[in-house]
Amino acid sequence: MLSVKIRPMQKSDLDGVISIEEKAYGPHHWSKDSFMSELSNELAKYFSVLNDKDELIAYCGCWQILEEAHITNIAVTPEYRRNHIGEALLTTIIDECYRNMAKYITLEVRVGNKPAIALYEKYGFKSLGTRKGYYQDNNEDALIMWTENIFYDKFKSVYDRNVLSLKGKINIL
Q: 74 Cβ partners below 8 Å, 6+ apart?
């Protein structure tokens, strides 16, 4: 079972984050300056994932504004995909929302990114529309996905069940 450490993103992580960005998003990725700005933004929450060799292998981020959180990105380096790291990052964001009393979570995802859509649906996100031509690299549409109130019993029971199942698939240190 893969063991990882998830911690708040640090400035020293940014070269690794940009490397993952380039692999995940090609030439239309965020700049190092964009991430530097995010790290100093009090509304932004960013996390890094390190493997057992302390190598950066994934990251995620969100903005929390009052009762809403917007997931800005979840990216895993290609050689570590399909190891439940993205799912662990999603639960990290949801846990952060619980701590900060954010009731609703939203995100955009490429309509062609079936694995990500399936993960979000597993955690109770629902598509509430599309943004036409949202992605600049190929004009692909984005699904706009939202959760219901994460404090509702219906959401919480699905979340708790998924987190319990996740514990048997990845070891988070």
A: 58, 59, 60, 86, 89, 90, 93, 116
Q: Are 62 and 100 in contact (CB under 8 A)?
A: no
Q: pTM for this one? A: 0.94
pLDDT tens digits along 107-130: 999 999 999 999 999 999 999 899
| Domain ranges, ordered by start, for the chain | 3-172
Token pair listed for 154? 């219906």
Coil/strand/helix, residue 107: strand
CATH number for the segment(s) 3-172: 3.40.630.30
Calculate the alpha carbon distances from 46 to 16, 56, 130 in Å. Answer: 14, 13, 25
Task: Please list the active-site residues.
Answer: 108, 120
